[in-house]
Structures are given as C-alpha cells and as structure tokens.
Design goal:
With 494 residues, the chain is an alpha/beta fold. It contains 13 helices and 20 strands. It has a domain of 339 residues: Metal-dependent hydrolases (TIM Barrel), CATH 3.20.20. The strands form three sheets. Strands 8, 9, 10, 11, 12, 13, 14, 15 and 16 form a nine-stranded parallel beta sheet that branches. Helix 4 crosses helix 7 and helix 7 packs parallel to helix 8. The chain binds dihydropyrimidine-2,4(1H,3H)-dione and zinc ion (2 copies). The site of one zinc ion has 4 residues, from loops.
C-alpha cells in the first residue's frame, strides 16, 4: 500500500506566511505531510516550476439568489457557480442565504441548502442576509443559526427590499455581540441614492451610465463612516464589503488606526473597471452596473494602495451574475433605465488570475499577500481556518497548482465556465493561471476539464470567528463606570 494517495512533487509551496521548496503528501483528503522524499503514492503530480497555493476562499458571491432590483434570478446555480469558481483556483465558496421579507432565516437556510446540496462541486458555507431583524430573528433564529455554523451575516443600508435603518443595524450588532456573530455591511446612503436617482430619471437621464452618478461616492463614504460609528457604539467588529472609493477606504483605515476591529473588503471591479464602462454603446453599459459602481483611475490606484498596505483584508469577487438578456440585465426590455437593471457583475473565476497578474506579477503585492487576501484571511474572518486557507498538515487538501507564466487573453467562450454569457474582462491579457486544482484531495480540474461530480461539494459549518470578538473598549456612554452606572451594553448574559 502506498504511503499517500497523492504526492505533489517539486513545486514551490506558498502560504500567507511562508514559501518552501517541498512536496505535499495527501491522504484521505487532508494534507498529511510537507517534506522532501516523501515516499510512495498512488499518484505523483509533477509541480516542477509551479506554485502550489492554497485554493482560494471566496468570501462574497451570490449564487442562485434573486436580485434586490426586480427580483431577477442569478445566472448561476450552484453547479455552474462552483464550477466556474474551481476553474479559477477557488476551492471554497461562501455565498448568501438571503432572508425574504416576511419569511424566516431558517426558511432561507433550508431553501439554499436544497439548491446547493445536489449541485455544488466544491465545499461551501453560507452567510445569512438579514432583512427583517424582528424579535424572533434576533432572539431565536440568529442565535441558533450561529451555533449551527452560520456565523456571519450581511446587512444592507440601502435597497428598499433589503435595507435596515440605523436602529435595526444596532439591533443586529447587539445580537452579534451577544452570540459571537460576524457582521458584514453594505454601506451606502439610501436617501442620497434615491434622491439622486429620482432627479436623474425625472430629467430624462436614464441610461446605465447614470447608475454610477446615482450611487455617489459620498453616499458610500458617509454610510461607511456611520456604520463604523454604530459598530464602535456597540463594541462589535464589522467588515465593510465591496469598497470602491478612496474616501470609504480612508474611513476604514482611520478606524483601524484608532484600534477598532473594522475590516475591509474590495473586489476586481474596483481595480479593473471604471464608470466609463457603464457608458458603452446601447444597453451594453448594463453589463457593468453593480453597487457600488466602478469609479475612475484614481480610485483604482487608491484601492491598490489599500490592498498593499493592509487596509483590506479580503479580496472577493462579489460575483452577482445576470445574463445579458430578458432573464437578467434586460428583464425590463432592451433599453432599460438604470433603475431597472439588476446590480452585479460576474467574476468568481477571474478573481484570482486578475489579482495574480496585475498584483503579484506587476509587483503591487507579494505572493504571500495574494494568498492572504484571496484565501487565508477570508478563511480566518469566517471561521474556516486552518481547515481552509492554508497548506499545513491537517488542513483540507484544497490546493491550486499555478503556472505563473501562462498567458491568456480572456475570451468568454474559451476561458469562462459560468452561465452568464459574458465577462466584463473580455480581451484583457492575464499572466498566471491555476492549471490543476484539488478539492479535499480530489483532483477537481486537470487538463482544462472538470473532474468532480455535481453535488460532491460538502457543506461547511463554520466556527465563530476571533475577528468577531468585541474589543472590550467601551465608549463612555456604554461604560457603566462612566455612564452613571447604566447597564445597557449587550452581553451574553443580558
Ligand atoms: N451588493 C452586493 O453585495 N452584491 C451585488 C449587488 C449589491 O448591491
Ligand atoms: Zn452589497
Ligand atoms: Zn454582493
């Protein structure tokens, strides 16, 4: 009998912390040894000249979810969404189980499990989206679901169908503090966006490009500032998702400098697209409508700085896929107003290659930062580390073997495996691709083929994250020693 099921031989093994020239021994789906001269295996994979990286952990994607604008169904189901992810070197996804208004969180979780179980080809967890934080949700459902491994949840400060007001956000934060949940926030000022949208539409400015005008930069930075203030008031950490502007990033940076546990996430669309993409011919601009919208070259440079200097912990795709037809972006007709276009761009497959090519190859970040931003940090933030996000003895054998020099000019039909029908990154030349991917020790991608079955991905209940632990630093008004003894801080026993 062989010592291992698989040995990956001769590659450079890289984690968020280290690089080593060593072999990887895999047994029963786990990494069993890291050394040279490992002995025998049923299969030896030659990784000479290759990088052996932890598989990507996708911390923000929407799969089989309906849009906030118009209730449009995502283009990808759990088969095509996870297939596309794994072709791009990602081995874990954490999409959302979104509470429908009037329905329970439990119903959402059950519905998304029914979708994912028979279809996912790689491992998955679920964040929750809380749209109705009523007493039952806050006191019964969320505490129970957190204990069952749904340890993170997103709240929206905008969208009529999803938004919470500040008081509701505070209620969710209090619940997170008491139960060890981790809160993600979509931070945009709802009234600013609505007011701008109404004025634009009333004056006849309805093409997709005006989406970028309606979602003003100030709407993002103001809401980011406010969200951070709410988090500080309750002393509960928070992650601001899909940051697109320098000003919002600076709010996060300032909070971090002040010692607050505020985390930041950004996405490829804020590095590689601009508002000018929304101004393409006809309705083409609708392909690039997402919220917040892509901004400009100066914003892109700022976001790169935030990736390099550690302001951002997570680089995710925010894959929110809609077809460019009457099932998706054009549901309201061939020339929809920007108000009628489902918000979101696809990117789950190109997330890693784009960052590798433009970030690592061009020297903006190093390879360890790349692993941290795309895999290790996300696994840590969401309670999956060290099972996911690293190459270490005992971790799941989720591994992407990269050819750092392989160059491709992106062509949707040739290179992309989602069900969207287009990529916003068409025609861009990218250097460095995952050429072989293992998921829990199974060869998932080889020679450009998917080698794992529908439904073979496993659900991942997640631990409570240490990132979610309160700082223990109270503002005076919450501190009984300084607030005349008022006992109002949400804690586990109250
Ligand atoms: N927010 C997301 O997180 N994804 C898509 C659209 C949106 O507003
Ligand atoms: Zn969002
Ligand atoms: Zn999203």
């Amino acid at each position: 009998m062989s010592d291992f099921d698989i040995i990956i031989r001769g590659g450079t093994v890289v984690t968020s912390a280290d690089s080593a020239q060593c072999d990887v021994g895999i047994k029963d789906g786990k990494i069993a040894a890291l050394a040279t001269n490992l002995g025998s295996a049923d299969r030896v994979i030659d990784a000479e000249g290759r990088l052996v990286l932890p598989g990507g952990v996708e911390g923000h994607c929407h799969i089989e979810q309906r849009s906030a604008v118009g209730g449009v169904m995502n283009a990808d189901d759990f088969y095509t969404g996870t297939r596309s992810a794994v072709f791009g070197g990602t081995t874990t996804v954490i999409p959302f189980a979104a509470q429908r208004k009037g329905a329970t969180l439990r119903q959402a979780v059950e519905e998304y499990h029914e979708c994912a179980g028979p279809k996912a080809v790689i491992d998955y967890g679920f964040h929750l989206i809380v749209t109705d934080p009523n007493e039952h949700v806050l006191n019964e459902e969320l505490p129970a679901l957190i204990e069952e491994g749904y340890t993170s949840f997103k709240v929206y400060m905008t969208y009529d169908a999803l938004r919470l007001d500040d008081r509701q956000v505070l209620d969710v934060l209090a619940c997170a503090r008491i139960n060890g949940g981790f809160v993600m926030v979509h931070a945009e000022n709802h009234e600013m966006i609505k007011w701008l949208s109404d004025r634009l539409i009333n004056k006849g400015y309805s093409e997709p490009k005006y989406h970028a005008v309606s979602h003003a930069r100030l709407a993002e930075s103001e809401a980011t500032h406010r969200a951070i203030a709410l988090s500080e008031l309750v002393d509960v950490p928070m992650l601001i998702v899909h940051v697109s502007t320098e000003d919002a990033m600076t709010e996060i940076r300032n909070a971090q400098s002040a010692g607050l546990k505020v985390y930041g996430e950004t996405c490829p669309q804020y590095l590689f697209l601009t508002a000018d993409d929304l101004d393409r011919d006809g309705a083409e601009g609708a392909k690039f409508c997402c919220s917040p919208p892509p901004r400009d070259a100066a914003s892109q440079e700022a976001i790169w700085r935030g990736l390099a200097n550690g302001t951002f912990q997570a680089f995710t795709s925010d894959h929110a896929p809609y077809r460019f037809d009457d099932t998706g972006k054009l549901r309201a007709g061939p020339n929809p107003s920007f108000k009628e276009v489902a918000n979101g761009v696809p990117g789950i497959e190109l997330r890693l290659p784009l960052l590798f090519s433009e970030g690592v190859r061009k020297g903006r970040i190093d390879i360890h930062q790349f692993v941290a931003l795309t895999s290790a940090n996300i696994a840590k933030l969401y309670g999956l580390h060290p099972q996911k996000g690293t190459i270490a003895v005992g971790a799941d054998a989720d591994i992407a073997i990269w050819d750092p020099d392989l160059e491709k000019t992106i062509n949707y039909d040739q290179h992309i495996h989602d069900d969207v029908g287009y990529t916003p990154y068409e025609g861009r030349t990218v250097t460095g691709w995952p050429i072989m991917v293992l998921s829990r020790g199974r060869v998932a991608i080889e020679d450009g083929e998917l080698c794992v079955e529908r439904g073979s991905g496993a659900f991942l209940p997640r631990e409570k994250s240490s990132a979610a632990k309160p700082l223990g630093r109270l503002v005076p008004e919450m501190d009984p020693a300084r607030n005349f003894g008022a006992d109002i801080l949400p804690t586990a026993n109250k």
